[in-house]
Write a structure and sequence with these properties.
- The protein contains two helices and no strands.
- By secondary structure, the protein is mostly helical.
């Protein structure tokens, strides 16, 4: 069930990106509408991520990053 849901989200994301590109090239009205919604959702997600990073800052300069480590390796030490 989770795989089906994630596949649906992936298809919607790819479809939205295709509509953004098509709208930039002068697509029909419905494509411009889908592109506008896709860009608006992207802005909302980006802003919520920025807010979450600002609120969750613990002083180590690593809030809001993927990978968890500031050493660039993403994991522990290798003796």
């Amino acid at each position: 069930m989770v795989v089906i849901a994630l596949t649906g989200v992936l298809l919607l994301t790819v479809g939205g990106c295709v509509c953004v590109v098509w709208a930039a090239r002068g697509g029909p009205r419905w494509v411009r509408g889908v592109a506008a919604v896709t860009l608006a959702i992207g802005r909302v997600l980006r802003d919520s991520n920025r807010r979450r990073g600002r609120l969750g800052s613990n002083g180590d300069g690593n809030s809001g990053t993927w990978g968890g480590g500031s050493d660039g390796g993403g994991g522990g030490s290798n003796g």
